[in-house]
């Protein structure tokens, strides 16, 4: 008995035994809810705020400035709370991750509610502190037809989810650079899709301003387009991930090449 205790103590001293208490305590759902709410609030406040300021003050931010603002705030929030909630900030991302088995189904509803609430609160704050007119609407409205915006939202959200899957969710990725990759992707997508659809890529981003300012023009395109695009992007990237079958094939091929 003494020898067993001594061996256990020596092993612990050497760091060979796992600690009974995890060094990474479990994050409670309420903490994830708060992280998503605050993160989405900051994203919408900064991103939509740059849009409103640019319209109210004669293009002082400029369109490139708006694009950069969206990319920077998303990147900042990913690094701020990504380790708490995963930094979704987007119902389309949450839904897709749940379908891929990366987010528990029981948490999806809580995530979406927190994201919508964060967007609504941010939009309400912007309306409170700025003289928002119809010309300074910071939501998303189709520049052409709603169908055109719908297609654009599918394409740019596909690109976004594809990058998220590769840069942040794949174990083979260098995850410390994930926030930069996602932020840059959003910035580039706003450059391309902004003049056409407003480049939402996020149902919560569009619904918040629409609810606060009660303006729902073409809103269906900004709800279903990002969800469809995200699901396609997530599942297409999944085709690039190795499976047990593909790994066994690689082993077999390496053995054959070695024998040859």
UniProtKB/TrEMBL annotation:
Record key words, sorted: Membrane, Transmembrane, Transmembrane helix, Transport
MF annotations from Gene Ontology: channel activity
InterPro entries: Aquaporin-like, Aquaporin_transptr, MIP, MIP_CS
Ribosomal protein keyword on record: no
Compartments in which it is found: Membrane
PANTHER family: AQUAPORIN NIP-TYPE, AQUAPORIN NIP2-1
Membrane-spanning ranges: 33-53, 60-81, 87-103, 110-130, 150-168, 180-199, 219-240
GO terms for cellular component: membrane
Main location: membrane
PROSITE patterns named in the record: MIP
Domain of life where this protein originates: Eukaryota
Membrane topology: Multi-pass membrane protein
Name of the molecule in the record: Major intrinsic protein
Gene source species: Helianthus annuus
Family: Belongs to the MIP/aquaporin (TC 1.A.8) family.
């Amino acid at each position: 008995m003494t020898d067993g205790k001594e061996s256990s103590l020596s092993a612990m001293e050497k760091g060979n035994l796992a600690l009974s208490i995890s060094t990474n305590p479990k994050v409670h759902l309420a903490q994830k809810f708060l992280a998503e709410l605050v993160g989405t609030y900051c994203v919408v406040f900064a991103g939509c705020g740059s849009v409103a300021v640019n319209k109210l003050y004669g293009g002082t931010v400029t369109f490139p400035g708006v694009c950069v603002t969206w990319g920077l705030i998303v990147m900042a929030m990913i690094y701020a709370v990504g380790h708490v909630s995963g930094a979704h900030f987007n119902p389309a991302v949450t839904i897709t991750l749940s379908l891929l088995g990366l987010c528990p189904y029981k948490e999806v509803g809580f995530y979406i509610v927190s994201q919508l609430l964060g967007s609504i609160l941010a939009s309400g704050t912007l309306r409170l502190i700025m003289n928002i007119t119809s010309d300074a609407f910071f939501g998303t409205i189709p520049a052409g037809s709603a169908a055109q915006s719908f297609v654009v939202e599918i394409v740019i959200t596909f690109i976004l989810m594809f990058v998220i899957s590769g840069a942040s969710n794949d174990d083979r990725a260098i995850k410390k650079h994930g926030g930069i990759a996602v932020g840059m992707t959003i910035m580039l997508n706003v450059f391309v899709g902004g003049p056409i659809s407003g480049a939402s890529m996020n149902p919560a981003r569009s619904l918040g301003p629409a609810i606060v300012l009660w303006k729902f023009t073409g809103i269906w395109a900004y709800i279903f387009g990002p969800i469809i695009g995200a699901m396609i992007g997530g599942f297409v990237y999944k085709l690039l991930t190795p499976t047990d079958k593909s790994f066994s094939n690689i082993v077999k091929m390496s053995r054959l090449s070695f024998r040859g």
